[in-house]
Amino acid sequence: MAESLDTLVADSDREAAAKDLRKHHDSGRLTLSEFESRLAEVHAARTRGDLEHAFRQLPRSEPPASLRVRDRRWSSLALQYALLNLVCILIWLFSGAQGSFWPKWVLVGTLVVYLRRLGRRSHRRELPPAGEGDGTT
User: Fold this and answer.
1) 3-state DSSP helix/strand/coil percent for the chain, to nearest 5?
2) Is 132 helix (H, G, I), strand (E, B) or coil?
3) Are 40 and 51 in contact (CB under 8 A)?
């Protein structure tokens, strides 16, 4: 373990570490001054141990999926879908539940909209950010 901390790092390692620090800053774990200070440490790092020191007191793994903003948005969409359909079913029930079960059309329609939104989000996530991989940088 001590040997790996003495290993010299490349520019790509420093870039990856800077990207990870930026994620910690964006999530609110680091203030702007802490972020700038640690970013300077990352850019000055010569060994893996120097890079590890820049991440002191920070978790090195991703937070659970349920804490990510996009996942909360997904559950929000699911909640909207469920509430809209629940309201329609309750209206049908309180109006006497006569005739065919008309809320089925609302269920199908909102499911189609929900799946399209979900599909667009996953498609966006697969695309590289603008300027990466398209030869425009």
Assistant:
1) 70, 0, 30
2) coil
3) no
Strand (E) or helix (H) holding 43: helix 32-44
Give the bridge partners for 47, in sequence order. Answer: 8
The span from the CA of 118 to the CA of 61, in Å, is 26
Q: Tell me the three state secondary structure of residue 63.
A: coil
Structure tokens at 74: 């997904």
Domain chopping of the chain, boundaries: 2-54, 65-126
Q: One-letter amino acid identity for 32?
A: L
Does residue 48 sit in helix, strand or coil?
A: helix
Kindly report the backbone phi and psi dihedral angles of residue 31, in degrees, each rounded to the nearest multiple of 5, phi listed first. -75, 170
Backbone dihedral region for residue 28 (phi beyond 0: left; psi -120 to 50: alpha; all else: beta): left
What sign for the dihedral angle of Cα 57, 62, 67, 70?
positive
pLDDT at residue 37 greater than cutoff 80 = yes
62-100 pLDDT, tens digit per residue, is 554 444 555 555 567 778 888 888 999 999 999 988 888
Radius of gyration of the chain measured on its C-alpha atoms:
24
